[in-house]
Amino acid sequence: MILKTLSRMRYFPLFIGMRQSLSGSVRLYSRRSRGPEIKNKLKLATTVGSTKQTGSTLSRKPSPNIRVSDKRGPKIKTPAHRSKDKSRSTFNYGNFGGLKESGAEESQRASKIISKISDFDQLKVLPVVRNAIKQVIADESLAKGKIKDIKPSPIQVVSIRKLASNLMDPKLQLHAIAAETGSGKTIAYLTPLLDYLKRQEIETPEYWESINKKAVIRSVILVPTHELIEQVYSTVSRIDESLELHTCKWGSSLPYSDLLEQIKNRIDILVTTPAKLMSLFNIRMISRPDKILSQLKFVVLDEADTLLDQSWVEDMHAAIKKMPNTNHIVFCSATIPNEFNRTLGSLFPTVVSITTPRLHKLPNSLEFKVIDASLNPFKGSKVKALAQVMYAILNDGTEPNFEKRCIVFVNEKKDVSTLVEKLSTTYGHNCVGLTGDDKVSERLEKIAAFIQPPKVLETPQKTVQREADNTKIYKIPNSNILITSNEGEKSNIPPPSSRLRILVTTDLMARGLNFRGVKNVILYDVPKTSIDLVHRAGRTGRMKQRGRVFMLIDKTAKSWARGIPKIVKNSIALS
Ligand SMILES: Nc1ncnc2c1ncn2[C@@H]1O[C@H](COP(=O)(O)OP(=O)(O)OP(=O)(O)O)[C@@H](O)[C@H]1O
Fold this sequence. Notes:
Blueprint: H1 2-21, E1 76-77, E2 90-91, H2 104-116, H3 127-140, H4 154-165, E3 173-178, H5 185-203, H6 205-211, E4 219-222, H7 226-236, H8 240-243, E5 247-250, H9 256-264, E6 269-272, H10 274-278, H11 289-292, E7 298-302, H12 304-307, H13 313-321, E8 328-333, H14 338-347, E9 352-355, E10 366-372, H15 382-395, E11 404-409, H16 415-426, E12 430-434, H17 440-451, E13 473-475, E14 482-484, H18 496-499, E15 500-505, E16 520-523, H19 530-537, E17 547-553, H20 559-562, H21 564-569, E18 573-574
Parallel strand pairs: 2-18, 3-8, 3-9, 4-6, 4-7, 5-6, 7-8, 10-17, 11-15, 11-16, 12-15, 16-17
Antiparallel strand pairs: 1-2, 13-14
Bound molecules: adenosine-5'-triphosphate.
Keywords: ATP-binding, Helicase, Hydrolase, Nucleotide-binding
GO molecular function, one term: RNA helicase activity
Organism: Zygotorulaspora mrakii (Zygosaccharomyces mrakii)
């Protein structure tokens, strides 16, 4: 009961925060209206500000009343009181817990559809769009498959099928796509978007004639970071040619004059952030921004739980209000926090959710290891434990022909530089740190080597010949990772710097980024919430690839942190 009241309280400031910007009313989308209409005004209490996001997750204080599992070990909670289906169990993780549980019926329905549809040809998509999408996947996906072997992922099956059912219906349609990290959600929303644009051209030729030479934007994909603009645009731009569409990315480096040029030639798909889109109304050179957005029919909010978080919801809401003729709004995320779920339900009561049975489950291709730094030989030093794990990753014989990459997540931005310093100078690693304080251009440069597929090594790694055995060997519990007590072990392998590349960062890089072929993620700090855990761990083990997550704990770690390997193994959803 305490949890419920508390989360309602936490939710309530959301509307209060909005009141300050929406002059006393919160617009609600009514069931019958074609577009946004004021349905009723919420009576709101005193005001509190809304916290601005500062390039890493919001610093929320854990509420004292949140119950964490007891000392005896993590409780796998069977929330009988919460879900009718007694057989399901979820794992209440972190200070908040607080992820929406998908109902059993919803999962069963999705499983049934997924079992019946295993090929793109079974989905109602224009052949030209289907071929373009399969080509994009074949070009991008690491599992260099042949076009004919490309199959839709579960979330792509259920999303494309659902949106295709009434795709060209003129009324406002709202969908929320949610599935585990690395499950192909980008293609899941891009396919219906492309299909919509091409059908508009084919099925309404007069309308198409009336706009195709106009200065308009037909669809927009909104994302929270510049890195995601680059990533999503690199996928979207691959279909330019084949579908004769004008695509545009509006990040930090696009001058207004170039943007104007592109608008003049019609933009079919714009990839940008909400703030950039809203700045259209402040560009002197643009006299009628409302006209430019008057033909905006398809809107996607990727990482939607961030875009409708307390720190963004005002910009987001203002942006959506400027799109009066939208046909489709698609919200997309790997996590549905309860708070987001309530916001969505209140602002957009007709939203239809599209999920898969693996929502809020960590990828089952993940090996999840918990390493207790309070044990010997680390004696409480997490830096030592980290160094040993790096040493083990370097020498465990995995990825023998490629440069290994490892992403280290910390909770606090201030710890990034200290850790980079330690790993580079004390242990000689090739290591960079990235936070929201870096310029966008620096950030893009730093992550480039992690977004690209792994680099091939000139001299493949030979397996380590262990020297005379005066070194003690430590085995990480339930893993094949052996750690020696003597870090300075000499052996006939190239220095670490040429074989392992390390990125130390915060949650800023945890969302959505498709770190292609990165096999190792280290959680230097225990993530505070299940949302952070899902997104950080989800940077590896993507689209059925293997991946390893090492989480460092010490004696201050709560018992629920130790329960993660079990929930990954048993494929239990986080709640
Ligand atoms: N049908 C498919 N078959 C094989 N690979 C695919 C398929 N669809 C997408 N991929 C690849 O899977 C990877 C992950 O896709 P994507 O980044 O869209 O995942 P996501 O669900 O958005 O992840 P996150 O929740 O972390 O944002 C990409 O490299 C993409 O090229």
